[in-house]
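Apologies for my clumsy wording, but could you write out the amino acids of a protein and the tokens describing how it folds?
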Amino acid sequence: MGYALVIAFLLVQITCEVRSEQRYERHKLIRVHPQNTGEIYAMKRIQDVFRNSEFEFWKEPRKENQPIDIMVSPDASSHLTQFLKVAEIKHDIVITDIQALIDTQRKKRSQQEDVEDVEEQEDGGVNIEGDQQVPSKQSFNMKSITLSKRSWIGYLS
């Protein structure tokens, strides 16, 4: 049963890594603030017409005064913002470069994992091979479950 959990975790990690290969350089997140049913209808039409293309609706058009979040490709960004201006639909650009934000978050997560690895080594863990640590019974807690993929692979071999 323990191996099944580890294998499931590895499959999730691999799936996430494969999905993370998609790059979003200069993609923007535009937040639209529909004020009436006409504006909601216009946004629903845009969603229907451009489904699976240059727009990805993160929050769908539902009702008045409820923001709609749309990830927009660099090529379509100016077209959408131009339409919103002409139609006088309130909107803001929330994120100017989604990939830059993703890269920043990955870097922070990587640095945090490095700090956690060092803390685990200093936390009374038992050294198995090289830099791999297994927490001692006293220091084992839920935080120690968040091991890097490198550590999980070490446990399998």
